[in-house]
Specification:
Elements lengths: L26 H26 L6 H13 L5 E6 L3 E6 L6 E4 L2 E4 L32 H21 L8 H11 L3 E3 L20 E3 L1 H4 L9 E4 L2 E2 L2 E2 L7 H19 L12 E6 L5 H14 L4 E6 H9 L3 E7 L4 E7 L2 E2 L5 E3 L3 H14 L12 H14 L10 E7 L6 E8 L2 H4 L40 H10 L33 H6 L38 H9 L3 H13 L7 H13 L3 H8 L2 E4 L8 H12 L9 E2 L10 H10 L10 E2 H6 L32 H4 L42 H10 L4 H7 L94 H15 L21 H8 L17 E3 L10 E6 L19 E4 L4 H17 L11 E7 L2 H11 L14 E2 L7 E17 L10 E6 L12 E15 L18 E4 L6 H15 L8
């Protein structure tokens, strides 16, 4: 911008230019300054008004209020992360967000389960209009073959890892599931019955939140669930108009703000800002509509957007990482480097946790799941399937065995049904679908795509301008069907995705669909209008009647000649976008991660290793036991050269991976104005009309039209590029670090710095040191304060504000005896008569003297030649995993030589390490590790007593505080061996105390098992010692007279003629201490019994040390009666006599014991005795 004044032909005057040289020339800066000025003016007015009213204004309180206002800055910012299944919303000052289902229920003629003729989900195959009787044929041969193939691969993997695999595991599961009926529980006996949403006489038009998921299926009127976002896109399949779709999103967010955040007055919302988290590979229409909803519909004062992967790094505190976000219906991968998303690394594949849920149900139904009528379109069935997936699915091979589980089915106005079922490898094969996505059902994911909402187009040339990435293009190419041979000449077939990192930084341009997709810019770019045409092979040729450069006339057939002559780049881009919309992005999770990192590293091997070492898995779909170790193992098997560099971590500070993205958005929103310049205010959104600037910045998405909405663009003709109609519309542009001025006319001034170094003697002379000592005094304090670097990362509690680890300890430090001589005062030293050995002023260094032997042990004979030290040779190969496994197998070969494998190494079998003579001698003559003189008398194998396992899976140990009976004589009372403890129903006070302990355990996040309820017990003893012996004979399975009625000691009180044992009540006991974890009975305490079988007679147990699980240890004491002041003592409701009969366990009890036995043994169903 130069101005000139002409005075004759040679006189010219150049004016100084200040364009874009000051901060106040930027709109964003001016907007921030205006907000700060208005805030200061308002504060001054409030102060003047208070002084005029005679209110005493304290300056200190005012300054404290200002500080509090700055600290509470996040309380005026709403953070929104909308997903396909849940909406996470909260204030930036909140620790955790509120989670609301992203669903709205509207009045509808039919609910979602009744539509399409009541077709269930998962879809069942029908033959002649009816379902086959065998569930193996419900989902077709393709699913059955792939399911069986995955099951066989898992068995081979488990055998290779030396895990026991049962050949008849599937038969055990199918047979049990076929014959086990459900147990019916009446509604009034179900303590966990569901609270359903009541529909009154005046039914609302729509219902949102958790209440929408609990609407009865047969409600009057009917309601249908609408999910506005599906698979990361707008849900165009279930909606008839896009206005209704946008309205539902606005209603759900508005309802969450009012009900969850408590912002009930919409007139106050312009005072709030909003941070909206968007996908990494977003669509422009999605962002513009969200901006319109937040600014126009909800009336927020300002809005800023942040991508999900970048938000995750903010939440975790990482600067660079590879983020793998496994959501409910989509999985996104992106590499983040120094706070920026690498555009070519963005990947978005359309599967997630919901696909795992549906596949889990299909696999369970394939194996005769007892609840065969499950329909995921029903709301309570969908919630049940999600619960089963979260409780039972795992990716830990150690948990794969025939397991017995149960669940409760609760439907509206129906009794609760309790189902028992068995499963084997279905719990692991379902989440393994992340690595075999063809097992998922993708038939409905592209249905009605682009039915309501068209793609975004450039305002100038009309070409599609949604962001793309090179990694996504590679995945689309691999998932696309092969191109017909007649369409393109000499087009090779689609190649599989690469698995190794490129060694040279080069940008490939493959032929075919991916090659055309790669031509799309990853970030928004400026129009080609008014720009000079660059040179290059990829530049489109002008549409003249001349062949393209490098192509002879007629070469490649008639189609090639026609395409060369009549080539329109806009039409070609539209065609590519249409082809891209017809392909569902699909690849295994491990392949997608490698593709993302390959394009994110741009051929830099060091950067690729950094990304592989910083993979962070987030999202609710990844909350499967053993998911991250399994993924890490998959990547290491595919990239053996990078095995040591691959590391997958969870979010730090024990953050929930589901809320990490929202947490990063709250951190981003609380940045000051100088650290966050991406806010879009109401003024910018409604009033700014400017030229678009070519700036690669996230906020450049605002260049698409907002006012008015973009009209549907008609198909372009070949001549439209030059003389077509141009749509002038309002839009927003945001530029960052842009300066289009030419470089300065004069070069920068260079300083002359002497580079002679020490050769000149300037810095090595004595005069320089003396002068430096006079001018710069020695700062001892600074050296003592700053001279020792302290690594605060390893100190516990530093980041929580605990600085006690940095202070001196209150307890005196014990001094080593060798160092006490150094602390003696000088007056006591004198001349030592001899040198004390072992004293050193530098301990644990190379100057340590040899301790001990007396005399001058540190002196040596000068004539004796010192022998060089022999280094201890370490065999690096011993640390290899294969050698470690051989060492483990060697231990089994020593103990069981008859089972040792001596053949060649195979995938299924591995030969153990060679056994030395010393090792065999040590096994034959064992020694006590602490007392070598002790002699081995006998040894017992440690075994479980499978036949003694109860239907609860363990035993309870009750310890009395005092002697339960008053023993009058010196002999032992045999009645104690057959005593009984009867559990009493807990009182209201006990239940309240238990709920308080459980709530405290959950709020504090304490480690260890959750607390268990404390019960009261009644203690009973048999009437005589003979009765006690008779009871023990009744329980003995080896006693031939166990069924003799003469063993009983009393008759039934009801005079039925049946015999029984009579037990008398002694007293009541209460629990004062309780330990144990019922979920892990083998972690803390075990009961061990040494068993030596009798020489004559066949006992049921072999010789061994049998262990029994202790699920709980209870300490009880006599209970005293509670006497309330002023109230008469209530009559105690108690049982004085128990009449006991002994019977064999029923079928249910046998099944429960059988389930615990199979879980412990892992060898399938044992013979029932």
């Amino acid at each position: 911008m130069n101005g000139s004044t002409t005075q004759g032909a040679s006189q010219q005057r150049r004016e100084a230019v200040e364009y874009l040289k000051r901060d106040d020339q930027f709109l964003a800066y001016r907007t921030q300054q205006e907000e700060a000025t208005n805030r200061m003016v308002q504060q001054a007015r409030d102060k003047d008004r208070a002084l005029a009213q005679g209110v005493d204004v304290n300056e200190e309180e005012e300054s404290g209020a200002t500080t509090a206002t700055q600290e509470a800055f996040g309380s005026k910012i709403v953070v929104i992360h909308a997903g396909s299944q849940n909406l996470r919303i909260g204030l930036a000052s909140d620790a955790l967000p509120k989670t609301v289902p992203m669903v709205l229920a509207r009045k509808w003629p039919e609910n979602e389960a009744e539509e399409d003729g009541g077709e269930p989900l998962p879809k069942r195959l029908k033959i002649d209009g009816e379902m086959p009787e065998d569930p193996d044929m419900w989902f077709g041969e393709d699913f059955s073959s792939q399911y069986n193939s995955m099951s066989n691969d898992l068995k081979q993997r488990m055998r290779a890892n030396k895990r026991r695999v049962l050949p008849n595991s599937k038969e055990l599961v199918v047979n049990y599931n076929k014959r086990t009926p459900p147990e019916v529980i009446s509604e009034h006996n179900d303590p966990h019955r569901v609270e359903w949403t009541e529909i009154g006489s005046e039914a609302p038009d729509y219902i949102m939140g958790q209440a929408a998921l609990r609407i009865p299926e047969n409600s009057v009127p009917r309601y249908k669930l609408f999910w506005p976002i599906r698979h990361g896109w707008f849900n165009e399949q279930d909606y008839k108009t896009k206005q209704t779709l946008y309205s539902d999103i606005s209603l759900i967010i508005e309802h969450a703000i009012v009900s969850e955040l408590g912002l009930k007055h919409k007139k106050d919302w312009p005072q709030y800002g909003c941070v909206c988290v968007i996908p990494d590979l977003f669509e422009r229409n999605y962002v513009t509509q969200m901006l319109d909803i937040l600014l126009r519909g909800l009336g927020f004062g300002r809005v800023c957007f942040q991508q999900e992967s970048l938000s995750a790094t903010f939440g975790a505190g990482y600067s660079s990482s590879c983020i793998v976000d496994v959501g409910a219906q989509k999985t996104s991968i992106c590499c983040v480097e120094e706070g920026m998303c690498i555009e070519d690394s963005r990947v978005n594949v359309k599967y997630g946790g919901t696909d795992v849920t549906e596949s889990f149900m299909r696999m369970m139904l394939h194996d005769h799941f007892p609840y065969s009528d499950i329909n995921l379109k029903r709301r309570y069935d969908w919630l049940l399937a999600e619960e089963l997936k979260q409780k039972f699915c795992t990716m830990n091979e150690a948990d794969i065995s025939v397991q017995l589980y149960d669940f409760h089915l609760r439907a509206f106005e129906e009794d609760t049904r309790k189902y028992f079922f068995k499963c084997y490898d279905e719990t692991m094969l379902a989440p393994m679908g992340y690595f075999h996505p063809t097992i998922f059902d993708h038939s409905e994911k592209l249905k009605a795509r682009r039915k309501l909402i068209d793609r975004s187009y450039d305002l100038y040339d009309g070409s599609p301008n949604d962001p793309q990435s090179a990694a996504q293009s590679s995945i689309v190419e691999s998932a696309a069907p092969p191109q017909p041979a007649a369409a393109y000449n000499a087009v090779p077939e689609a190649k599989p995705l690469p698995t190794m990192v490129a060694q040279t930084p080069s940008k490939s341009n493959p032929v075919g669909l991916a090659g055309r997709l790669n031509e799309q810019e990853g970030t928004p770019h400026s129009s080609v209008a008014g720009s000079p045409v660059p040179d290059g092979a990829n530049t489109p040729q002008p549409p003249q009647d001349t062949p393209a450069a490098g192509t002879a006339p007629g070469e490649g057939g008639s189609f090639g000649a026609t395409s060369s002559i009549f080539f329109d780049p806009t039409l070609e881009k539209i065609k590519q976008a249409e082809e891209r919309d017809r392909v569902l992005p699909m690849a295994g999770l491990d392949t997608a991660i490698m593709t993302s990192i390959q394009h994110g590293a741009r051929g830099d091997d060091r950067k690729a290793r950094d990304f592989y070492g910083g993979i962070m898995v987030i999202g609710g779909g990844s909350k499967v036991t053993g998911f991250m170790p399994f993924l890490e193992d998959r990547l290491r098997s595919l990239l053996p050269g990078l095995g040591k560099d691959i590391l997958i971590g969870a979010p730090p500070r024990d953050l929930d991976p589901q809320v990490l993205v929202w947490k990063g958005g709250s951190v981003f929103g609380k940045l000051s104005s100088s650290g966050n310049d991406s806010w879009i205010s109401q003024k910018e959104a409604h009033g700014l009309v400017s030229q678009r600037n070519d700036a690669p910045h996230l906020a450049d998405f605002c260049s698409t039209p907002i006012i008015p909405p973009q009209p549907t663009r008609p198909p372009l003709q070949p001549h439209t590029m030059s003389g077509g109609r141009v749509y002038h519309q309002d839009y927003i542009a945001r530029i960052r670090y842009s300066n289009a001025l030419p470089p300065p006319p004069n070069p920068p001034k260079l300083l002359e710095i002497p580079n002679t170094g020490l050769a000149s003697g300037q810095y090595t002379s004595a005069g320089f040191a003396s002068r430096l000592a006079r001018e710069q005094p020695l700062n001892v304090e600074a050296d003592a304060e700053l001279g020792m670097p302290i690594d605060l990362v390893g100190l516990p509690g530093v980041f929580e504000g605990d600085d006690s680890v940095l202070l001196a300890s209150d307890e005196p430090v014990s001094i080593h005896p060798h160092d006490r001589a150094l602390l003696r005062p000088l007056s006591t030293l004198g001349k030592p008569s001899s040198l004390a050995g072992g004293v050193s002023f530098l301990r644990r260094t190379e100057y340590m003297t040899a301790a001990g032997g007396g005399g001058h042990s540190g002196l040596r004979d000068p004539g004796k030649r010192l022998a060089p030290k022999r280094r201890k040779q370490t065999d690096a190969e011993k640390n290899e995993p294969i050698n470690i496994l051989r060492s483990i197998l060697k231990g089994f070969d020593i103990a069981y030589p008859q089972d040792a494998y001596k053949g060649p190494d195979t995938v299924q079998n591995l030969r153990g390490e060679e056994i030395t003579a010393e090792e065999r001698r040590a096994w034959d003559h064992p020694k006590h590790p602490l007392n070598p003189t002790a002699k081995l008398v006998d040894s017992y194998p440690v075994l479980p007593d499978l036949e003694a396992i109860t239907e609860t899976g363990g035993y309870i140990v009750a310890k009395f505080q005092t002697n339960p009976i008053a023993n009058q004589g010196a002999s032992y009372d045999e009645r104690v061996d057959a005593s009984l403890l009867r559990v009493l129903e807990p009182t209201a006070e006990q239940e309240e105390a238990y709920r308080a302990r459980l709530a405290e355990h959950e709020e504090t996040g304490a480690k260890g098992p959750p607390p268990q309820p404390h019960y009261d017990y009644e203690f009973f003893l048999p009437a005589s010692a003979d009765a006690a012996r008779g009871l023990k004979r009744k329980f003995s399975t080896t006693d031939p007279d166990r069924d003799d009625e003469a063993l009983y000691d009393a008759d039934k009180a009801e005079a039925s003629g049946r015999r029984c044992f009579r037990f008398d009540r002694i007293r009541c006991y209460e629990t004062y201490q309780q330990t144990g974890n019922p979920l892990e009975p083998y972690d803390e305490t075990l009961a061990l019994a040494l068993h030596d079988p009798e020489p004559e007679g066949a006992g049921r147990l072999q010789k061994g040390a049998y262990y029994y699980p202790i699920v709980q240890r209870t300490f009880i004491r006599p209970k005293r009666k509670a006497q309330r002041a002023g109230m008469p003592e209530e009559e105690e409701n108690r049982v004085d006599v128990l009449e006991i009969e002994v019977r064999d366990p029923d079928e249910r009890e046998v099944a429960d014991r059988q389930g615990f036995r199979e879980k412990l043994e892992g060898e399938g169903e044992l013979a029932e005795t």
